[in-house]
Design a protein that fits this description.
The chain is α+β, with helices and mostly antiparallel strands and about 450 residues long. The protein is built from six helices and 26 strands. It has a nine-stranded mixed β-sheet. Strands 12, 14, 15, 17, 20, 23, 24 and 26 form an eight-stranded antiparallel β-sheet that branches. A five-stranded antiparallel β-sheet has the order 13-16-25-18-19, with no helix packed on it.
Length: about 450
């Protein structure tokens, strides 16, 4: 038979309704190892078989994901993780992995893995700071086991779009320490008016129940719900979990929204907030909410001055020219008060130094490289404390910076002794403008907002 005949036969077979190969479903590891408190929903029967949570999630995921239930932490090894699109933790206590093995698991997430934590996931690895930063908070008790009101703060997310803006549910409600809304994106929160809030220990009465975050090239989701057995028969909850898995695998990346009182500096409102370094019109290119450096047009800075603040900046570096190295790779910078630069650079895949992406320029290298490749949006979330002056006018305290790069804390409360290189030639002070640098590359910025903090 000729090649043409074979092609014709194949086409005829397809037209006759020959079934195409079935698409392989994403494999998801559902780990229910309990090294601490054993919740009834993940307790397996003595005679063997799966726990209630395992059986119900397998059933609910049919046709969407292949759930692989296990209590074996050896499946978190790198060679095993290659076969999974996501990992779901309903775990507790110190899981039996060495420091090196934990590091490999965390690296898997940073490099594009997906983690979904359920209920006691925030009571897992309680002595491992890196895990607490990864999951977004630490279990700090459960003041309420009752029916509560839940507020849906984001109905666009796959894990919440099926829910009403407010609903009631009966469950054991966690509170968390070491939890901060930014750079997380909170999806569900407790309505504090639905409970005796005096039983909680957060002064801000902010009891988030579900959140998500980017983590390098990967994604992390957490929900505090899932204690009671009946929730695994409640379609609201099972669809919540399945939507979380879908998002963790497929995205999209989610930016934290501006908090109340934030000043939006780059959105769809034009360039009125910006000026060039001579006080004239900013000449960078703004289109569809994206601001692009026009090489040679000079750096731009805000007309308004700011003090202590929380700053969110999203940026995209262009592909580096062939053979480009060092500072010739997609270069720009974010200058707090025009003085303290957090470097923007195409540093993907490099061992980071004090002049690379995420560095406080020339002062301190990032703790790790959280960069994404060129042409992918990235984010900085920066907590800034301005320098302090004594009553004499002498500087009494240096500026301090914490930086999260794509959801990972890479600079933690760093003391910055003075202006970094290429800063504005003005005195340090309590207030100053935000400056974005023109360093000859068409770097793009979007979703830039700044929330003043109490001084």
């Amino acid at each position: 038979m000729t090649g043409l005949s074979l092609l014709l036969c194949g086409a005829l077979a397809a037209s006759a309704g020959q079934a195409a190969p079935a698409k392989e479903l994403p494999r998801v590891l559902f780990l229910t190892h309990s090294a601490g408190f054993v919740h009834s929903v993940v307790k397996r029967p003595e005679a063997g078989g799966l726990s209630l949570a395992e059986r119900r999630l397998v059933e609910a995921a049919e046709g969407r994901f292949k759930i692989v239930p296990s209590q074996d932490c050896a499946l978190l090894a790198p060679q095993e993780l290659q076969g999974f699109a996501a990992v779901v933790f309903y775990t507790s206590g110190m899981l039996p992995l060495s420091e090196e093995e934990r590091g490999q698991f965390f690296s898997w997430i940073r490099k594009g893995g997906a983690l979904v934590g359920v209920h006691s996931a925030t009571d897992t690895w309680p002595e491992v700071p890196e895990y607490g930063a990864l999951i977004g908070g630490r279990f700090d008790g459960h003041p309420w086991t009752q029916e509560v009101g839940v507020r849906v703060e984001d109905r666009a997310h796959p894990a919440t779009r099926h829910l009403e803006e407010r609903f009631t549910i009966a469950d054991e409600i966690y509170q968390h320490r070491d939890f901060f809304r930014h750079p997380l994106r909170v999806l569900l929160s407790l309505d504090p008016d639905s409970v005796d809030s005096a039983r909680g220990n957060r002064q801000d009465r902010d009891y988030a129940l579900a959140w998500c975050s980017d983590h390098g090239e990967g994604r992390v989701f957490y929900t505090a719900l899932g204690h009671r057995e009946e929730l695994f028969s409640d379609e609201r909850f099972t669809q919540h979990l399945l939507g979380a898995i879908e998002w963790a695998i497929n995205g999209p990346d989610y930016s934290p929204p501006p908090p109340q009182g934030a000043v939006v500096l780059i959105g769809n409102g034009g360039l009125s907030a910006w000026q060039d370094e001579a006080g004239g019109e900013a000449l960078w290119r703004l289109e569809d909410g994206e601001l692009e450096v026009v090489p040679g047009a000079g750096s731009i800075l805000t007309r308004e001055a700011f003090g202590d603040c929380l700053l969110h900046v999203e940026f995209m570096t262009p592909p580096s020219p062939e053979g480009a190295a060092g500072q010739g790779r997609g270069n720009s910078g974010v200058y707090l008060q025009g003085h303290y630069e957090v470097q923007v650079l195409d540093s993907y895949g490099l061992e980071p130094g004090p002049d690379d992406c995420g560095a406080i320029y020339g002062v301190r290298a990032p703790s790790l490289n959280a960069s994404r490749p060129p042409l992918r949006w990235q984010a900085y979330d920066i907590r800034f404390r301005a320098p302090r002056n004594a009553s004499s006018g002498e500087k009494a305290a240096n500026a301090r910076l914490s930086v999260w790069h794509n959801g990972i804390c890479i600079q933690e409360d760093v003391d910055v002794p003075g202006s970094t290189r290429a800063a504005q030639d003005t005195p340090e002070g309590a207030r100053g403008p935000l400056l974005l640098q023109d360093h000859g590359a068409p770097v793009r910025y979007r979703n830039v907002w700044l929330a003043p903090l109490p001084e």
